[in-house]
Amino acid sequence: MFATLSPFIRRTLLSQRPTTRSAFPSPIRQITSTSAALQPPISSLQRPRRSEPTGNTWNNVLGDYIATSSKQVPLTPEAIWQQKSDKAKKAVEEDPPAGAYSGRSVKVLGGNVADAYARLNSILQRNKVRAQLRRAERHEKKGEKRRRLESERWRRQFAHEVRSFALGVCVYRAFRKQVRKKVQLVTKIRNRGA
Q: According to the UniProt entry, which residue ranges have a biased composition of type Basic and acidic residues (predicted)?
């Protein structure tokens, strides 16, 4: 449990004294406390009793929360509607819906224009916007375009084979990887209905 906590919370928890009472006392604890009260004190070897903890300890937090939440007045339908509409409005303002330029625009964070420009440049490169504009300068015949797209698709699907043979790497593991890729390709073609 302590591994997932922040160092501040860990220090706070470790510095607090353990509590003896809880929001939900267990019957076992009650039995042991009553049986301990019946026994006579042993001698100076017995540990001294701790002082009662304050109400703001970790064992009492849940009980306090339940007590305060049960005191709240139920909201009217209008108030619930208002709360939900405020949340929805805030969410839309923070993250607006996608528009015509949302994929080709970035926010400038903290006045850092160079970083925003680099992010925009990487988006344009990933989406191949400049290459499409260059191709659109001249008309591409229907058959040539179809052949180019087919060639690009095949190059994408079998890029791992071209790389492995170009480097002269033909080991058993690479062969198994190629078989796995081909099986994936066959299932993809079957699912497509071709």
A: 84-93
